[in-house]
Write a structure and sequence with these properties.
This protein has 276 residues and is mostly helical. The chain is built from 14 helices and no strands.
């Protein structure tokens, strides 16, 4: 295998290219704790608060902070199974591969040994149609009545774009395979998927139209009844989070995490530029 020159390695590691993960600020745990308390005071359950915090932290690429978040979320865990469930839920929100790997490495050994190792999204000839159907249903639930129009717009950009997004992202990744969360693995579900999408995109910045779309997507989960479809779990406080007041709290919570992890400089993912 060929070797990289010293000059090339130095360029890859150049500080202006931000090659490393974001360290955990000293008081990040207190930031998470405050959001946890705010959620509880609004009757918002642990799953929603943890989903938005995990999504924002993953997007900011701070595995050290994820470790703090996990520690806080499992402080009152009644048993190992609950702590394992929390870890499995958090790893369902992988925005960056290195961050996900570092998160696993930070977990206690006895938790790592109990994590599920069975893949749940393997594509086969037998399940491909079900995956495509799940993708189409989730896409329609989030974007109706503009779902078909948006497909056409994406196809104008590239004919394979809507094919990949709907079948492979919405079908293979964003939607939950049958039985997930009930007989195996961790389930995110329809409502929390929209919360994760809003949090990831808000933390990323530069994608305001997509944030708006997924805010509507969260609301539509309750408008079209998909929040209570077969296999879905109840999301405590979800209906409030789908309201104006809840949307504002969700966005402000993500902004709080981004501000802390970005040391006041904003997103580390793909910061947009303000118009002068």
């Amino acid at each position: 295998m060929s070797k990289l020159s010293s000059a090339l390695k130095a360029l890859i590691r150049a500080s202006f290219a931000c090659p490393n993960t974001v360290p955990a600020p000293e008081n990040i745990r207190s930031v998470y704790a405050r959001l946890q308390q705010e959620a509880a005071s609004r009757d918002v359950g642990e799953s929603s608060w943890l989903a938005l915090s995990t999504a924002a932290t993953m997007t900011m690429n701070s595995p050290e902070s994820l470790s703090e978040l996990y520690s806080l979320a499992t402080t009152s865990s009644k048993d190992k199974r609950q702590a394992v469930n929390t870890a499995e839920f958090m790893r369902e929100v992988p925005r960056t591969i290195n961050c996900l790997g570092a998160f696993r490495a930070s977990l206690p050994v006895d938790i790592i040994s109990r994590l599920s190792t069975e893949p749940t999204r393997v594509v086969t000839a037998e399940n491909i149609n079900a995956i495509k159907s799940r993708g189409q249903n989730l896409w329609k639930s989030i974007y109706a009545p503009f779902d078909s129009k948006l497909i056409a717009r994406l196809a104008d950009s590239h004919p394979d774009l809507p094919v990949h997004i709907v079948s492979h992202e919405y079908g293979g990744l964003f939607s939950d395979p049958e039985g997930l969360g009930h007989v195996r693995g961790a389930k995110v579900g329809r409502v929390l998927t929209s919360i994760v999408a809003v949090a990831c995109l808000r933390a990323q910045t530069g994608v305001g139209p997509q944030v708006t779309s997924h805010v509507f997507g969260l609301r539509k989960a309750y408008e079209d009844g998909s929040y209570q479809a077969e296999g879905e779990f109840e999301v405590e406080g979800g209906q409030w989070l789908a309201s104006d007041e809840g949307n504002i709290w969700l966005l402000n919570s993500v902004d709080t995490i981004v501000k802390e992890l970005g040391v006041g400089r904003g997103s580390t993912f793909a910061p947009g530029m303000s118009k002068l």
